[in-house]
Amino acid sequence: MTAAPILYSFRRCPYAMRARMALWVAGVTVTLREVKLAAKPPALIAASSKATVPVLVLADGTVIDESLGIMRWALARNDPEGWLDGDDPALIAVNDGVFKHHLDRAKYPGRYEEDGVTDHRAAALALLDPLETRLAASPWLCGGKRSLTDIALFPFIRQFAAIDPAWFEGLPLPHLQAWLERLVTSDLFASVMPKFTPWQEGDAPVQFGP
């Protein structure tokens, strides 16, 4: 029997969330190693010099240390819901680039150097308008079913909404709000969010998967 891949993860990391969701839907069981970011295990650093989660180590030693790479690898193996049919790299790039830039600065004001933008929350919000337009035409970002793009963006929009939930709920974004609610309350999201004790060398393996 082939050994299960090892996934270094952190429960609340949005990148790790979307990787876990894709692995779960693809039916890939992994050996989960929950990481305490303040005390990263040497095995994680040895596997990937970036030492950021998620990192997937395959049985043959191949290392995938980008969340989108993990998602696409898992779905290439098994894609029962057809998530790869809704892979929009351009939209994902906006989310992972400029939206994430403004999200971090809206969530943690004062942590980052000034970049000339005075209202990062407003700048991030403006990037949600195209998503609202898409979702007014279809229930998911790439059509009639949830796809890779929905799951890739979801954890970051969830973070943005959580900065000030009452404010977000009052925005004129009914389709985006409904989309977010469907994902937050989904069985899939619940399945990938249990709490685990941070892993240490020598701990018994923790199997994670459907």
Keywords:
alpha+beta, Glutaredoxin, Glutathione S-transferase Yfyf (Class Pi), Chain A, domain 2, 2 domains, five-stranded mixed beta sheet
Query: Which shape, going by the Cα principal axes?
Result: globular
Q: How much beta, percentage-wise?
A: 5-15%
Q: Quick check: average pLDDT?
A: 95
- Series of H and E elements: EHEHEEHHHHHHHHE
CATH architecture of the largest domain: Up-down Bundle
Radius of gyration from the CA trace?
18 Å
CATH topology of the largest domain: Glutathione S-transferase Yfyf (Class Pi), Chain A, domain 2
Number of helices: 10
CATH top level assignment of the largest domain: Mainly Alpha
Task: Calculate the terminal CA-CA distance, rounded to whole Å.
Answer: 18 Å
Subunit arrangement of the protein: single chain
Strand order of the largest sheet: 4-3-1-2-5
**Uncertain stretches:** none
